[in-house]
Design brief:
The protein is of the alpha/beta class and 804 residues long. The chain has 6 domains: 85 residues, GIY-YIG endonuclease (3-Layer(aba) Sandwich), CATH 3.40.1440.60; 147 residues, no CATH class; 179 residues, Rossmann fold, CATH 3.40.50.300; 182 residues, 3-Layer(aba) Sandwich (Rossmann fold), CATH 3.40.50; 56 residues, no CATH class; 91 residues, Ribosomal protein S10 (Alpha-Beta Plaits), CATH 3.30.70. The protein has a 7-stranded parallel beta sheet, sandwiched between helices. α1 packs across α2 and α6 packs antiparallel against α7. Bound molecules: adenosine-5'-diphosphate (ADP) and zinc ion (2 copies). The site of one zinc ion (ZN) has 7 residues, from loops.
Amino acid sequence: MTVAKVIVDVPAKQTDRAFDYLIPEHLENIIQPGMRVIVPFGPRKVQGFVESIESDSPFHSLKKIIEPMDLVPVLNKELLLLADWLSGQTLCFKISALQAMLPPALKAKYQRKIKLAGRDGLHELSETLYSLFNGKEEVLWEEAIKTASLTSIQKEVKNGKLEVVYEVQSRANKKKAKHIYSLLSAEQLQAAADSLNKQANKQQQILEYFMENNEAVEQKQLLSLLKTSNSVVKGLIEKGVLAEKELEIYRDPYKERAFERTSPLLLKEEQQLAIEPILDTVNRNKHEVFLLYGVTGSGKTEVYLQSIDKVLKKGEEAIVLVPEIALTPQMVHRFKGRFGDKVAVMHSGLSVGEKYDEWRKIQRKEVQVVVGARSAIFAPFENLGIIIIDEEHEMTYKQEENPRYHAKEVAIKRGLTHQCPVILGSATPSLESFARAQKDVFTLLTLKKRMNDNPLPAVEIVDMREELREGNRSMFSRVLLEKLKDRIEKKQQTVLFLNKRGHSSFVMCRDCGYVVKCPNCEISLTYHQYNNQMKCHYCGHEEVTPSNCPECSSEHIRYFGTGTQKVEEELAKILPEASVIRMDVDTTSRKGAHEKLLKQFQDGHADILLGTQMIAKGLDFPKITLVGVLSADTMLHLPDFRSSEKTFQLLTQVSGRAGRHELEGEVIFQTYTPEHYSIELASQQDYDRFYHSEMMIRKSHAYPPYYYITLITVSHEQLMKVVSVTEQISQVVRQKLSPKTVVLGPVASPISRIKNRYRYQCLIKYKQEPNLKSVLKTVLDHYQGEISTNGLQISIDVNPYILM
Ligand code: ADP
Ligand code: ZN
Ligand code: ZN
């Protein structure tokens, strides 16, 4: 007998293991590990993943697999093992880990079809299959298996003649576009061209195009290719030469754009020194983690490109991760420019179908490089030769839902498996990575010089307390306003940056910049309007909001926060002549809006670009000569021990937006705490000193990288329930873990209620805690009953990045 061990799609503790199923005889040669199957589960039919195949089972009267969902495995052996590791690391169910590795099209409701993989293949198919297709390009799975045997179909899938495809059923996902095609043969077109008036130059060109290309072409593409207008095409349609029809377009979003090929640049000395150790590990098939620390514009990307080139020449593959927000056409261009069709691109802006297409290219070994956001780390390559994570300090690499993995950790795990290097690149490395490099766990490679030898833009810090003292109550300092006016006159552009995340309310004195902090945790206290109290969300410390500043006795102490909309209104009042583009979550929620607004700004349709985080990266426009940060310190006061680090990174990045080209740039930081080290050092772009100052603080308060942390968040509709469960968990954890480990809590989460659910948390700080995962697993198991019946939720985040 042949038995499949199947992980079923029922995410619960009782089902978080493989179940044995009998493989019916007719499927014996078809089913392989890594395929999805349909199995009976209780009264239901569910989906599952085949983990392995055995010749025996200790259980009796096994149920049978109903049918396979795939004919080739969707997960290879490495990824199956990785899923195991992932569920152990992040304490998620195995099924969640498996699903995280697949594109969403393979999770959603879809229609399965068998498709001809190439046009030529048709002739070589067996008679049954040939007649099945009978001129069609694809047939429904259900229809196919009525006519032909699964074995015969699978054989052709393996030969590359057929393919199983999964289509999301909603029509919205199919993109159609107007296409133009010729109704005439090449000779007839020639005749038509000859009879044309010699002045009809444009029509002539179009006819010539169709003489050479007899396939339908997307209208948009035709017009841009021949630089002509639609009226010319319309004219030919009216003459009965051309016709138009709606056709589905192939979903490769980058296919239509021509990418000018680039060749490797001669490396500068610093780059050469940095790339040598990388190439050495590639040559020797050795795993090593490199931290490539280089300021923006120092040539990191060129180092990535040339390393990848080497890997491809060895016949191996490369994964490149970039933050979602940085996956701009500019970035994609650089990789497509160097490696052309060898590159797949994956980011959240793609439709489900597009993502699936890109994934399929990897699986079918049609590409060797993937450039993508976080989840591209699971790209199903089998001969990985290098993994690159650009802007490694970015938080987007951490997934904030189950499985709560960090792409960096997955990268290192895969790097080990494949014995290949992992490169982490950044101008402002995370403290964790830099500390590891200091301890030689990672190898540090440094690029100190900018390619263009331009000096970094001059940063001026404006003390907003001073402004207030001088009677300026506006959110714009006098200097900033003056410079704004100057740029508008000179027709140069300004970027105004407002940190929206600083919306969480903290209490600050507008006279001296004093912010009330927790005496135990060194993080800002959060203001609660309902009882006028301030509270620490790590340890629970609470105090009444002072009516006078404890530092300077001023009465101007109150809670703080401004939104982009308010800034826009204010701008309209004080600079009515300025045209402003606002970019925030509200104005960019529609697909493509982000790119469109940026394009408008780039084309000079506005003087000022006002926005949040999302404008901090990737902007590289020659006319930006001024960058204003409206309140550099808002993020500083988030209830998060990483707030200084994030402030430093963000300010450094924002400053980099100015003066990247010929015109020199200026930067203004407005702040109430000009003396804060992260603001001061960001203004000097001095990462090294920032690192040392911040490390001292982390050490004295027992935060990462000196300690590891794990966050447990409990939520439920009833407050009492949440409090008592969190209390119990904290107690158990305290008892079971070593005495050196610090357990903070129970305490209300910074966001204490979401959608009518109360939230409490318990924060664990530890250096070494080998039992942690098993203790936490026991905790989860203990509450499993309540989790599945009365709506209790317990989330465990190992190495959390968001502590709200
Ligand atoms: P980073 O990734 O560190 O921001 P880039 O790789 O984008 O830096 O390099 C910045 C600019 O310098 C790019 O325009 C790039 O083409 C150019 N550049 C990089 N390396 C070289 C080189 N060795 N010679 C000449 N120009 C280079
Ligand atoms: Zn004060
Ligand atoms: Zn505290």
